[in-house]
Design goal:
The chain is about 65% helix and about 0% strand. It is mainly alpha-helical. The protein has two domains: about 120 residues, no CATH class; about 80 residues, no CATH class.
Length: about 200
């Protein structure tokens, strides 16, 4: 990892840590106040109360993480803009996509979906091949971790091969049978989903 990459990631991780800790602490304190009667009835000691607050606040982490990430992105980008760091990095010959790379893994991480924005020049075949390779690696990793290749966007044309890898031939045959039953004339999204 190059020096400027480490700098950009560090500049993102610092506000992300502050946001995560701050919002999580707020949720913990508010959960203690909301459950104050239950805590008093259970006669919990201080350390038991802290343990209870930590355990009960973990279920809100899927909500807290995307909000913290968004706040951290906004804070770090505003700091870069305030001190003209983006202009300085560009003047040093660093491409804009290298500067912005840490900020393009965005999405609704809380429900398990994330999206990677590849900034490529479509006229350069090598850049497109690199993006396709990275995308295939990311989807393969998601499937290996028992995730899905589609998220909320569906299969479409680009991920047909991954659906077969994820679901298996038997499940695909069942999906095809269901599609034929519901759409015998194949007028709904023809040529999509199945290879």
């Amino acid at each position: 990892m190059r020096l400027h990459d480490r700098y950009l990631v560090r500049e993102l991780l610092t506000p992300l840590t502050f946001c995560l800790v701050g919002i999580q602490s707020f949720v913990m304190v508010s959960s203690v106040f909301a459950d104050a009667q239950k805590i008093q009835d259970s006669k919990l000691h201080f350390l038991d109360t802290v343990e209870y607050a930590c355990a009960s606040s973990l279920e809100s982490l899927p909500i807290i993480l995307p909000v913290s990430l968004l706040l951290a992105l906004l804070m770090s980008l505003s700091n870069h803009a305030r001190y003209n760091e983006i202009t300085a990095l560009r003047a040093a010959g660093i491409s804009l996509w290298r500067i912005c790379l840490p900020y393009f893994i965005v999405g609704h991480v809380g429900d398990g979906n994330f999206h990677m924005g590849y900034l490529i020049d479509p006229t350069i075949p090598a850049e497109r091949e690199t993006a396709e390779r990275l995308s295939a690696q990311m989807v393969a990793r998601a499937i290996a971790l028992e995730g899905t290749c589609s998220g909320e966007h569906g299969i479409g044309l680009h991920k047909q091969g991954f659906l077969l890898q994820e679901a298996g031939e038997g499940a695909i045959d069942q999906m095809r049978a269901l599609k034929r039953a519901l759409d015998p004339n194949n007028i709904m999204n023809p040529g999509k989903i199945f290879v």
